[in-house]
Amino acid sequence: MMQDIELYDPDRRPPNWTDLVHPGQYAVFHSDVGTDVEKAPDGRHLGPADKSMCRVFDSLAEAEAYCEAKVEEISRLRCDVYDHTGKSKPPIVTYVNKAYLRSPQKHARWGWVALAASLPCFWIAWWYGGEGIIIPLIIGLNLVFAGLRLVYWGYGGSEKRRSTREF
């Protein structure tokens, strides 16, 4: 059985969603694959009037079947499955569309390419003694920062990718 639960409702007793989920039940949270921004189950971004919600299932098998179907239906949707303890631990399993499983590795590869491309820029700046030729230094520094950011993006979500199931 599936049930939508509002994450926080001050008029409800208990007001928090974690107090409503019992052992053996699993909550599914929806978000955008690229930005991690919360989404509605139909894949649209939440509007100002929309409330944050999760879908609760009575078994892990039900939650997984739902997630598999949802990420196939809406390719940019990510489904994170949590147990009754809530978000205090990483998700039990994360579902994403197959198209997005390898994209973090692409980020890391391009990051390493950018870092390698910065080396000739620094060499050029060093060769000319750094006098009057600042452009290669600026380009090299930008390549280093962009490369480090891409490497971080590529390897930063490794715990999520480990819990991702490919179907």
Summarize this structure briefly:
The protein is of the alpha+beta class.
Q: Any overview of this molecule?
A:
- The chain is α+β, with helices and mostly antiparallel strands and 167 residues long.
- It folds into two domains: 2-97, no CATH class; 103-156.
- The protein has four helices and five strands; from the N terminus they run E-E-E-H-E-E-H-H-H.
- It has a five-stranded antiparallel β-sheet with strand order 1-3-2-4-5.
- The longest helix has 25 residues, at 103-127.
- The radius of gyration is 22 Å and the shape is elongated.
- The two termini are 23 Å apart.
- The secondary-structure element order is EEEHEEHHH
Amino- and carboxy-terminal Cα gap: 23 Å
Strand order of the largest sheet: 1-3-2-4-5
Give the fraction of residues assigned to helices.
Answer: 40-55%
Instruction: State the helix count.
Output: 4
Strand content: 15-25%
Q: Main β-sheet: number of strands, strand sense, barrel status?
A: 5 strands, antiparallel
Mean pLDDT: 85
Low-confidence stretches: 158-164
Strand segment count: 5
Q: What is the gyration radius calculated from CA atoms?
A: 22 Å
What best-fitting shape do the alpha-carbon axes yield? elongated
Number of domains: 2
**Structural class by helix and strand composition:** alpha+beta
Give descriptors for this structure.
single chain, 167 residues, alpha+beta, 2 domains, 5-stranded antiparallel sheet, 5 strands, 40% helix, elongated
Give me the secondary-structure topology.
Blueprint: E1 2-6, E2 26-32, E3 53-57, H1 60-73, E4 77-82, E5 93-95, H2 103-127, H3 135-156, H4 158-163
Antiparallel strand pairs: 1-3, 2-3, 2-4, 4-5
Helix pairs in contact: 2-3
